[in-house]
Amino acid sequence: MKQWAQGADPHNIKPYGDTMGDGWVQMSFTLPVALCEEAREAAKKLAGKMGLSDVMVYHEADLGYGFSFFIIYGKCKHSVDFARIVCPKVVEKKMTFDEINEFIRTHVGRPIRVIGACTGSDAHTVGIDAIMNMKGYAGEYGLERYEMFETKNLGSQVPNEKLLAEALEFNADAILVSQVVTQKDIHLSNLAELIDMVEAAGIREKVLMICGGPRITHEVALELGFDAGFGPGTTPTIVASYIAQEFVKRFGKGLKAKT
Amino acid sequence: MAHLDLDERQIERARKAAGNIADSVLSFARSHSTVAIERAILRLMGVEGADADGVPLVNRVVEIAQKENLLGKGIATYFGNCLHKVGDPTEAAKAIAEKKIALKEDYSDDRARDEALKALKRGISRIKGTVERRRALLQKLGDGGSTPLLYVIVATGNIYEDVVQAKVAARAGAQVVAIIRSTAQSLLDYVPEGITTTGFGGTYATQANFRVMRQGLDDVSFELGRYVRQCNYASGLCMPEMAVLGALERLDVMLNDALYGILFRDINMQRTLIDQAFSRVVSAAGEIIINTGEDNYLTTADALSAAHTVLASNFINEAIAKRCGLKDWQLGLGHAMQMNPMMEDMFLLEVAQAQMIRQIFKHCPTKYMPPTKYMTGNIFRGHVQDAMFALASAITKQGIHLVGIMTEAMHTPHIHDRFLALEAQGMVMNMARHLGDEIEFKKGGIIEKRAQEVLRKAMEMLEQIEKEGLFTALEQGRFANVKRSFTGGRGLDGVFKKEAGYFDIVEDLLLKSLEEDEAMGARG
Known about the structure:
The complex is a heterodimer of chains A (about 260) and B (about 525).
Chain A: E1 24-31, H1 37-49, E2 52-64, E3 67-76, H2 97-107, E4 112-118, H3 126-132, E5 149-153, H4 160-170, E6 174-178, H5 186-200, E7 208-212, H6 218-224, E8 228-230, H7 236-251
Parallel strand pairs in A: 4-5, 4-6, 6-7, 7-8
Antiparallel strand pairs in A: 1-3, 2-3
Helix pairs in contact in A: 2-7
Chain B: H1 8-30, E1 32-34, H2 35-44, H3 57-67, H4 75-83, H5 89-97, H6 109-141, E2 149-154, H7 159-171, E3 176-179, H8 207-224, E4 229-233, H9 239-248, E5 253-255, H10 258-265, H11 269-285, E6 289-291, H12 303-323, E7 331-332, E8 334-335, H13 346-360, E9 367-368, H14 379-395, E10 400-402, H15 415-431, H16 435-438, H17 446-468, H18 470-475, E11 495-497, H19 505-519
């Protein structure tokens, strides 16, 4: 449910410093020019073009080799209509460990098979491990610990080809992909490629495709053709709740009875 | 002065167990070689460059030798045989790759060995040249004098952009600049060629890129009047080749840890431990400081209960390194405890473990790292976290401090991220420079007890591994909670047993040259 502070206008939301509607914003950036009066002026002008007024350059530093750094405060001129914003939600209802097991037992009647991997060149398994490992994350058990999930974690640097082959072999109901490190948005092309491959293999309609990582949002995931995306701070029960509920919604009991 | 009461007998027992573990690993390693070692030998003999398809010539030659079943005797003699006909190593490799000459053609063992020896000696004298150059630069410029050395990473994917970032970092106080490799490079079974501008998550480590960065850092060293060290990775499937290239191109620091590759890159344990034995001898000759990768174990294991695995691994790494000719001052043993900074009294445990490592490895430039696992998108809190770890590092007088960067969990550092991190942590180091000399730890307090407990558990773990062997310990997941099998993982097909008559002179030559230097009192 959307809420706002007393005195705020939900149709005209802008940043708040210490007075409603003041619009105060902090930012910092580097310009590829050596520090001088004109450089400072350039930083101010740029902040103005970004929509700030009352721009203050509070700090500047000469980084050398023709670079200078600025810390800037300014008042944002723009506002957004918060009242009209609607975001697609990933999880309808967050359930507990026991509730999820029970839910799957009742509505599916067999464990849901989840395969996970950190794909492409990415070697950072922190994300996939947090969600899948027995030990879990943030005080919550990972999927491996659930009686009603059958899991396989392929670990790091798994090529999309391998993930797909393993998913077919494992007869996966859900594929979980983690992408942590990125540069120049390589994670997006990796993810898009996986969707293409899953479609080409003719199983797209039969599996839940889920991605996660610090740069992932649910919206980005949907754009890429995934069913869901989870960003930073996601805990195992959020993902588990989603898989359980979405699986039942999608396939219902017995619809996807596998041996 | 900061000092923990640690049981010297336990330290001794741990060292003894680690020594036995190292002996058994090395006796296995030295009876084997790998395709990567053979390629490294060719590089040491002077082969550079790639064929028209971009395949490095060293790979071509070793593949041919493998196909002809010659590798068991080592590539050096067969290549020496070809050098007799084509004097220039790179030209000889080309001729072999193009099948203009065959490795076994008119083979005469004595002549081949002679030629091989000559080429290898040239390579070793090139390494000695870089050692002398570094010594001269350090003597002339110094390195800024203060410890811990501030270590930062650059990782733009483009070597030219990296040089800009590195120079700005050096100017902001960085003393060691590590060029993070393109993320998948550790799994390539060849070293890419040439200057590159298109890495992901990092920049390809190539001989040409090494030179570009060396030039950039030398320039900035002269500008600043202090020597800035260059760091890269002798790890992954090409570990031995990277070690040779690092030594030839005057890299100063190289990450080098087989266990890291086994645990986190799923590289086969036989392959990489064999590779490591060779690599460390090369790094010893190149007077390169190695950094070990224990600072990553606890990203997967529970930091509180598994801290002793870091210490145990430090002992093993120390034992293996020393048996490969490395000196204390070259052992940048890694440790970062990856404990949750939100926990009460966590700072006490950090100091306990950092001080413990400092005392146990007295003369090593131990490398300390803040807990990257707990960096979030909250750059403001992260900045303070990093400052606290800089304080722990200053108090316990670490040798190398990996400067934490507040955007760690978000992207490879932007130019000002690194600048701000260096500014803040440099300040902390400076304001607490002699704090460690002034404080004493409470007898039997939280800090001392923690260190004693970790040491005892590390010793027990080492004595257990001593019985079962390192390979079994890895199979059982004793490090980082990751289980690896003896024959699993990447790169096992490149391992072979040395046959009778293997030209086993490379390590001997390098070790001998180390001994000679030592006899002359040349090494610090």
